[in-house]
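Q: Predict the bound structure with adenosine monophosphate.
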Amino acid sequence: MSKVLICAEIEDGRVSDATLQLASAALSAMPHSHRSIAFVGDDLSEIEPAAAALPADTVFLIEHPALKNGDAGVFDAPVSVLSSLCQQEDPDAVLLARTDYGSNVGPRLAFRLGQSAAQDCIDLAVNPESGRLAVTRPVFGGNAMAVYEFTGDGPQVAVIRPGCFDSAPLSGGFPEVIRFDPAGAICEPRARLMDTVAAQAEGVRLQDADIVISGGRGLGGPEPFSRLEELAELLGAAVGASRAACDAGWVEHERQVGLTGKSVTPSLYLAVGISGASQHMAGCSGARNIVAINNDSEANIFQDARYGVVGDWRQALPAFIAAVQDLQND
Amino acid sequence: MRIAVCAKQVPDPEIPASRFKVDEGSLRAVPPPGVSPVVNGFDLNAAEAAIRLCESEPSAVNEVTVFSAGTDFVMEVMKKPLAMGAHRLVLVDDPALAAIETDTSSTVRVLAAVLHEEGPFDLILCGRQASDWDQAQLPMGLAETLNLPCITLARDLSLTGDGSLRVHRALPDGYQVIETTLPAVVTVSNEYGEPRYPTLRGIMTATRQQPIRYSLADLGLQTQDPPPLRLKRLFIPERSRGCELIEGEDDADSGRLLAIRLREEQLI
Ligand SMILES: Cc1cc2nc3c(=O)[nH]c(=O)nc-3n(C[C@H](O)[C@H](O)[C@H](O)COP(=O)(O)OP(=O)(O)OC[C@H]3O[C@@H](n4cnc5c(N)ncnc54)[C@H](O)[C@@H]3O)c2cc1C
Ligand SMILES: Nc1ncnc2c1ncn2[C@@H]1O[C@H](COP(=O)(O)O)[C@@H](O)[C@H]1O
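A: Predicted complex:
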């Protein structure tokens, strides 16, 4: 594997953690490769000093007004410029993170280049015989794992789940910094971002919380979630939910943890009235300790839980909250 | 205006993990006996979105056609979108599709061909991802192949006065408002809202209706060998960390003891 291109992302004016994870994924799977990192944006001056010290051989800076926020939500512009960069550079592998950006741009870039992408990979290796990438990805909602291998000649595009690799150091490299002129690749926009409506996040952010308390269909309605809020306040925790609880309208969709919701990595994940479907567990398998309160001893959640109470939350939870209060008052 | 909805028949994703089996030789999931497949959940959200556009904009939208590529279709299952109110069902039904199911580029070629044959369409709605192989990329492939814009994760759709489509696109926290020219490919997420239950009348109408069928040969297609991304292994990962069950005198006591145990472990 000789050339790898990493499609970088910027978060809060910094090189995103997921991007640094791609750098270490490339290093561990393809240690002798030539590594490039491509940044897109309308103004990269803020990121340039950090980019110029990344552990890579080349950094591409691609600036254009149409690339603002990675062309948020539309993604036509980054797909066009990255495909023209790929045509110029002819990388063997292209890595993106499974973020909103990467999971849209990755497949579209692959198809634009006549390939298809490997979405949501959790591991990456090179088959020594074929010299091509083999990727592992969860399938069937996480019930099974699949290993795929690339066979074609074109760029092998892999979209990698954040949290599966450690972050590479943010500095220490001496890459050649190259400005790539995207003007020829940018087309008349077909779609436009008109507005972004942020959901007001109350309390601790799910993704940052050290303790997450999640409720599921077993709670039976919206009211019990105020119990979870009460407990969350005591513990400085965030409140999450299963998709069933979100779809029922008991809590906002922003609370959904899982394969198609948020991924959380707290040290304690307390699941109340959640059966533990693989699609839910996909979002909390990075928790260090899963604790379940569920009245069905056969519930799947007990397969993953470290501690559990087989019982009705209507009795167990108030007593749990009272005991937490007592312990805190001691 | 004509809307196409792409819908896939998938094994029921809600079966308990303990009943989920795979055949490591043939690289397939083996559904438990007696459990029937379903229409991929997000595709029913897409069908619901198409039907609602049709209802809310009767002067603009006049037809919803559902497309599916696969084999071993269960007709009662695949007719569900018809029973909900879609007008036509087009199946590319070919045993050769089983072998290339995991290769999105092949499925893209098949759907692009049948959409062309039955087209033109102003809007192609897909689910955000299929719950079997969880690829979430066929719609992007279709959009690139047809050279159309691709807006993913719709939680609301409406037509604007000037014939564009306004999409509320779900974000981890909030949403974006995007306006796209048509034709376009749009994927629909569960945030859009639950698909309706078919009415008795809908079910009767769907029962009488026959799907339009194509084989790969009808579309002038052959299967491509080898696909650019090939499935090599399929297995069920090891699980179970060994759960310590906290048992008190009653459920309340268990709850209390759980708090004490978690404090001992310095988790709270
Ligand atoms: C493609 C796809 C993507 C998905 N993505 C996600 C996702 O991102 N996140 C997600 O959560 N789901 C997701 N799902 C849905 C998932 O498959 C499950 O349907 C969902 O997680 C179930 O939610 P639940 O555990 O709350 O409900 P249920 O499975 O109905 O479980 C409720 C539990 O509550 C228990 N219970 C009931 N009453 C009580 C009581 N009084 N006391 C204690 N326990 C009680 C029951 O024993 C049961 O175990 C996805 C599904 C698909 C197909
Ligand atoms: N064989 C198929 N027939 C019809 N639509 C499909 C097929 N495969 C995928 N799709 C559509 O593409 C979406 C995403 O699928 P995937 O990329 O396989 O996760 C699904 O939700 C469907 O709308």
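A: Chain B touches chain A through 90 residues (CB under 8 Å).
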